Amino acid sequence: MPFNAGEYGRWMAQARRTLRSAEGDLMAGYYEWACFKAQQAAEYAVKALLRGLGHAPVGHSITRLLKLLEHRTGLNVPGDVMDAAMELDRHYMAPRHPNVYDEGSPFEYYSERIARRVLDYAELLLAFVEEAAARWRG
C-alpha cells in the first residue's frame, strides 16, 4: 500500500501545532496543560504515521499505538522512544482530572521542570515519527 502523505501531513500538522501550544502553556506557567498537550502532540504524531500507512488507529495510549505500529509494520521502536511514550501516557488523564489525586488539584502536581521534561519526550516522539515516515515516503 502506498504511503498516504496527505493523511500523514494533516495529522502531523496538528501534532506540531499542539506541541507549539504546549510550549506556550509552559511559558505561561500552565504546566499541567503543557504536559497534557505534549501527550496529545505525540499521540497525533504516532496516529499520523499509522494513518499514512493505511491504518485507522483508535485509543489514546501512545505506548499501545507504538506496539501496534511495530506489529503491523515490523518497524523497531527504540527503547528510549518507548520509554518516552510510557512517560507521556501518564499525562493523558492526570493533568485534567482532580479525582486522579487524593488531595489538591492537578496543577499542584506539576512544575516547570516536569513540563520541560515531558515536552522533550514529545519532541523525541515527533522526531521518531518524522524519521520513520521519511523511510516510507521514499
Summary?
This protein has five helices and no strands. By secondary structure, the protein is mostly helical.
How is the secondary structure organized here?
Blueprint: H1 5-28, H2 31-52, H3 62-73, H4 79-89, H5 112-137
Helix pairs in contact: 1-2, 1-5, 2-3, 2-5, 4-5
Provide an overview of this structure.
The mean pLDDT is 96. This protein is mainly alpha-helical. It has five helices and no strands. It has a single domain, classed as Nucleotidyltransferases  domain 2 (Four Helix Bundle (Hemerythrin (Met), subunit A)).
Instruction: Could you tell me the CATH topology label.
Output: Four Helix Bundle (Hemerythrin (Met), subunit A)
Structural shape: elongated
Multimeric status of the protein: single chain
Please, what is the CATH homologous superfamily? Answer: Nucleotidyltransferases  domain 2
Rg, Cα atoms, Å: 15 Å
Class by SSE composition: mainly alpha
N- to C-terminal distance: 13 Å
CATH architecture: Up-down Bundle
DSSP strand tally = 0
Provide key terms for this protein.
138 residues; mainly alpha; Four Helix Bundle (Hemerythrin (Met), subunit A)
